[in-house]
Amino acid sequence: MTKNNAIGSILVLASIALAFWEVGTKLVTDWGRDENYSHGFLMVPIAAYVIWRQRTALASIPVRPSAAGLAVIAVSLLTLGAGRLGAELFLTRMALIGTLAGSVVFLWGFSHLRALTFVFLLLLLAIPIPAIIFNQITFPLQLLASRFGEASISACQIPVLREGNVIILANTTLEVAEACSGIRSLVSLLALAAIWGYLSASPTWLRWLLAFASVPIAIFANGIRVAGTGIAAHFLGVEASQGFFHTFSGWLVFIVAGALLLAVHRAVLWIRPGAAERAGGTSAGAEAPAAPLAPGAEPSTRFLARALVAAACIAAAAGGLRLIARTEVTLLREPLSGFPFTIGKWSGRDTARLSQEVLDVLRVDEYLSRTYAAPSEPVVGLYVGYYASQRQGQTMHSPMNCMPGSGWEPTRRGRVTLELVGVAGEPPQVVDLNRVLVQKGLDRMLVVYWYQAHGRIVASEYWGKIYTVMDAIRLNRSDGTMVRLIVPVDGSSGGGEADAERAALEFARALLPALDRHLPR
């Protein structure tokens, strides 16, 4: 690499560091705080090592820079701005990957980007997926691990009862919490599969096979861990499911999962001998013989000029973002603690406060939990969770993520329409609400819930997030509320499903005007 090339590369990297400094520091903080992504600390050094091993091969690739790279940089910087202003960490982190990829294309060309595909894959594995998607993955994994654990414990002739992700034994109760869902080992094992497939010079098809195999292996290993914890707790007491033993079992199971993954790799090579040799014969990334500079390569002065253009664009975007950065201001009307106990014909009373463990998961700023009753009507359970800001990754949890963990299985899902009376001569407003029938044993409940922000009511969690980003850009606000109603069905205090739906909609119609006086507009 010539002096001008080195200077140009350093300038581009420095401008990227300037533009994405806060994004990077927040990402590193999340790696240290969230054990699901602690492997991120390894991904960057490994990616740098892969680049170093490929340095001779990269130098032999003809340099054909493309202006399309500058377009990718521009789109990535716009994404960074949208993510910073629109309260979405995932967008800002993907903007970092996009800016790096665009810089490679603009300075060297698409051939270099293809050669660095594995490097960018490693970087993508280090980025936490959005919480709205993470929750959709985690809770099913919790239930799957719980079912596997229940079946395994029962096969050992140990009395066991499962309610959702709670396993009840004779002497203790075990909860398969989010940390025990297996998502941590799944993500880490997927990263291990990618690294091993690369370093072992496996063909592309085998690398994909290892990646897909990591999913059932991680699920199986985590199920064994849950079952083993339950069996140990039955014979040795509750201490076997806590503290050192619980942590050690996690490490032990991951080692077993890693061994199973390597066993799959060896089994495939045994069935198809010579696959590694056909893939390249040597370790991936080994240095190739140096090739002469391609005829189309440009002088280093041109490279430096392109680097200055890219660095100037990135640095200008970084300065612009700092100028338009605003502190989020949320104007509260009245605290939820002052919400009326009487709504129309309904009279309410507070329920038990949520535990700190639950609040740590919800990350809610204010909440309201009450039951409301009216003559000849089923009891309605009301929960309102208010988030003053969602800029730091807080997101509203869908009841369909939380309730199955408590043993309530959804049996029917859909939407229901609610017509609201217009105000001051305005036409009636029609909104869609989520409607879910859940069951635990012989008990059934109707759950109606929606997301509300700035006078807008939506049923879709994804549309709610899109509106949050748009409002954060337009209004510099990312506050929002999730409202949930629960009505018993066929219980001692409830009627049939039709009566439960009618009561829920009637209560919602009376609730919304009162709620509107408390929530920010």
Order of helices and strands: HHHHHHHHHEEEHHHHHEEHEEHEEEEHEH
Tally of alpha and pi helices = 18
- Rounded Rg: 28 Å
Overall geometry comes to: flat
Question: What does it look like?
Answer:
- 54% of the residues lie in helices and 15% in strands.
- The protein has helices at residues 3-19, 21-33, 40-53, 55-60, 68-85, 89-107, 110-115, 117-125, 131-155, 183-199, 204-236, 243-271, 275-279, 300-324, 356-362, 399-402, 461-475, 497-516; strands at 161-163, 166-168, 173-175, 342-343, 346-350, 366-373, 380-387, 409-420, 429-440, 443-453, 456-458, 480-489.
- Strands 4, 5, 6, 7, 8, 9, 10, 11 and 12 form a 9-stranded antiparallel beta sheet that branches. Strands 1-2-3 form a 3-stranded antiparallel beta sheet, covered by helices on one side.
- The longest helix is centred in the middle third of the chain and has 33 residues, at 204-236.
Short description:
The protein is α+β, with helices and mostly antiparallel strands and 521 residues long. Helix content is 54%, strand content 15%. The chain folds into 3 domains: 3-115 and 300-324, no CATH class; 131-279, no CATH class; 336-516, no CATH class.
Descriptive tags:
521 residues, alpha+beta, nine-stranded antiparallel beta sheet, flat
Helix and strand topology:
Layout: H1 3-19, H2 21-33, H3 40-53, H4 55-60, H5 68-85, H6 89-107, H7 110-115, H8 117-125, H9 131-155, E1 161-163, E2 166-168, E3 173-175, H10 183-199, H11 204-236, H12 243-271, H13 275-279, H14 300-324, E4 342-343, E5 346-350, H15 356-362, E6 366-373, E7 380-387, H16 399-402, E8 409-420, E9 429-440, E10 443-453, E11 456-458, H17 461-475, E12 480-489, H18 497-516
Antiparallel strand pairs: 1-2, 2-3, 4-5, 5-6, 6-7, 7-12, 8-9, 9-10, 10-11, 10-12
